[in-house]
Amino acid sequence: MVTIAGNDSDGSAGGPADLHTFFARDTYGMMILTAAVAGNSYGIQEQRTMPLDFITQQFTSIADDFEIRAAKTGMLADRAIIHNVVENLNRVSFGDLVVDPVISTKHGATLLEMDAIKAVQTELLPLATITTPNIYEGELLADMSIDSPDDMEVAARKIQSFGAKNVLLKGRHADAKQLEVTDLLLLENGETHWLTEPYVDTTHINGTGDTLSSVIVAELAKGQSILEAVKLAKTLTYQAIAETIEVGHQFGPINIWAAQDKA
């Protein structure tokens, strides 16, 4: 498998979290670097994007040597990189594609400019076997507020209309008072599945979306169905959050080891 993503220097998210997860699921992972972030558990201090010709060369180098069964996208940073990645994905054969949009944080901070969000909608999502937006990304992609389960279903269908075959719309992480987190899986055939796990009140949640989408990639590469891959990803990500590890002083990573010996 290959992750097309940015590098977080503290290893908690982005490409490092993807590669940790691939390893935990007994699969071999590669990485196409799109950006690099200087950061730690306190936050991000600086970032750089990769030159477009270098991104293209990474695609070529991997495609010329390896058989890739599945791929995922993570941080693509801006419209130019999104367009470059889409061009290269159309040029190579990397199997199933999981699109983790990386438009907004799980707390609602927007990470992409509007023209880049449009590129996700019109260029990237049509290539997706499945996309995994959080609730805030779902609102931006569907151009609507999401305040209820009915809203989630409407938004998921709008996102699917852009061309993504399957949509996993992740539920809201509100505050310590909530008891559960419920995600909605909309399948290509129109079926819906609601997936619920307990809410965990912790600041160690860096890399949650990366791990969830990476488990899906790994399981698709093994030949699992979308439904089974997503169910397992939801369970293992919950376990990785619940079984906390103490790394960093503030917003630490989830425990990807918890995904290694389960299921």
From TrEMBL:
It is an enzyme of class 2 (transferase). InterPro entries: HMP/HMP-P_kinase_dom, PM/HMP-P_kinase-1, Ribokinase-like. CDD domains: HMPP_kinase (cd01169). Keywords: Kinase, Thiamine biosynthesis, Transferase. Pfam families: Phos_pyr_kin. Pathway: Cofactor biosynthesis; thiamine diphosphate biosynthesis; 4-amino-2-methyl-5-diphosphomethylpyrimidine from 5-amino-1-(5-phospho-D-ribosyl)imidazole: step 2/3; Cofactor biosynthesis; thiamine diphosphate biosynthesis; 4-amino-2-methyl-5-diphosphomethylpyrimidine from 5-amino-1-(5-phospho-D-ribosyl)imidazole: step 3/3. Its EC number is 2.7.1.49, 2.7.4.7. GO terms for molecular function: hydroxymethylpyrimidine kinase activity; phosphomethylpyrimidine kinase activity. GO terms for biological process: thiamine biosynthetic process. It catalyses: 4-amino-5-hydroxymethyl-2-methylpyrimidine + ATP = 4-amino-2-methyl-5-(phosphooxymethyl)pyrimidine + ADP + H(+); 4-amino-2-methyl-5-(phosphooxymethyl)pyrimidine + ATP = 4-amino-2-methyl-5-(diphosphooxymethyl)pyrimidine + ADP. Residues 8-255 form the Pyridoxamine kinase/Phosphomethylpyrimidine kinase domain. One of its GO terms (cellular component) is cytosol. Belongs to the ThiD family. This is Hydroxymethylpyrimidine/phosphomethylpyrimidine kinase.
